[in-house]
Amino acid sequence: MSLLEITDLKVHFPIKRGVVFDRTIGHVRAVDGVSLTIERGQTYGLVGESGCGKTTLGRAVLRLVDITEGQVWFGDRDLAGLDTETMRRERRHLQMVFQDPLGSLNPRQNIGSILLEGLQAHGIGGPADDQEMSQSERRARTLQDQRARVVDALERVGLSARALTRYPHEFSGGQRQRIGIARALVLRPDLIICDEPVSALDVSIQAQVLNLLEGLQKELGLTYLVIAHDLAVVRHVSDVVGVMYLGSLVEEASGDDLYETPMHPYTRSLMSAVPVPDPQVEDARERILLAGDLPSPAAPPPGCRFHTRCPWRQEERCDTERPELRTVRGTHKVACHYAEQILSGEIRPREEYAERIVHGTGAGAATATGTRSGSGTT
Ligand SMILES: Nc1ncnc2c1ncn2[C@@H]1O[C@H](COP(=O)(O)OP(=O)(O)OP(=O)(O)O)[C@@H](O)[C@H]1O
């Protein structure tokens, strides 16, 4: 059984107006029909530009925002249907690591008390109920046990018991993110949702934190949902990558497959914007410069959500019929009516996009072409 299976998840935030905000004049469709599955022990990377709904999806899994529709199967339980108290208890199995480690750690609490908080809230640790002992002895044993769990979590992230009495501001950004990870680990969860886990860190520290997450996954059999706008980060850690655009998944594939053969025009444009360290490759590759801004999720375009910016848009069908996320080969899925024909070059970019699809010459100077754009990024 998969650890997490999300089916047709929707999170629509009401837009309120009126003196006391009592009129709903519309909805922000932050997540609008996402289905995805995460196998136990795997990492699912979710990418997409700011505002596409990644964070809202992660928060919906934890029920930190209200789910409008859909299911979130965690093992054999649908989290979307749990009452608040049952969900609160279930949350020890699903933890979150946040983007901004400083913002998510209370500056007035020392690290010991930050890490103990979750254990105490869930009543974890201490002697079994059937052991006879006084209240005070039980309390002391519980605290001792909880402290041992906290120290174990700190050591696993490369810190020591010396951190217990110190405060968040006394640590570097990378260390604070380690503390954020320890806070999630202390509850020994099955799933950790990492929301932009390294984007607030210096590049030199990012790899260390990503390697730490990978090491912990192997040691503890953890499952991750990693949310990031940075394709390089997601590629580094993910078994499966999903690409989101305006509240929906437009493509999903194993990391290598997606990066070698991106099929959705949006994924291709995202990939083409990632710098490549090898200057020869960098010079020779395709660039797709998208036209226009991301439409508002309060008024998404009809048909394919991407049609307003798609260089390969085909009239009628793309404008009116919303493509399903369909399997094209193996585990590679794409939500585009014409993905295969675009990839093969059978469908060419529209005239008005001629200057927006750019090939390098290999000599550093880019030239524009309105003809077929190649079979993907290299
Ligand atoms: N509580 C809320 N109420 C109303 N709208 C919201 C709320 N939270 C998010 N949104 C809107 O939902 C959309 C998706 O936001 P979300 O933060 O999930 O995107 P994201 O892809 O994670 O972007 P970022 O990386 O910038 O956080 C945005 O238009 C955002 O303004």
Walk me through this protein's architecture.
Belongs to the ABC transporter superfamily. Keywords: ATP-binding, Nucleotide-binding, Transport. GO terms for molecular function: ATP binding; ATP hydrolysis activity. This protein has 378 residues and is of the alpha/beta class. The chain has two domains: 4-238, Rossmann fold, CATH 3.40.50.300; 263-368, no CATH class. Helix content is 31%, strand content 23%. It is built from twelve helices and 15 strands. It has helices at residues 54-61, 84-90, 111-121, 135-156, 173-185, 203-220, 231-237, 255-260, 265-272, 279-284, 317-320, 339-344; strands spanning 4-17, 23-38, 43-47, 69-74, 77-78, 94-97, 191-195, 223-228, 240-245, 248-254, 286-288, 326-329, 332-334, 357-360, 366-368. The strands form three sheets. It has an eight-stranded mixed sheet with strand order 6-7-8-3-9-10-13-12, sandwiched between helices. A hairpin with a 2-residue loop joins strand 4 (69-74) and strand 5 (77-78). Helix 4 (135-156) crosses helix 5. It is globular. The protein binds adenosine-5'-triphosphate. Adenosine-5'-triphosphate binds at residues 13, 28, 30, 48, 50-56, 229, 297.
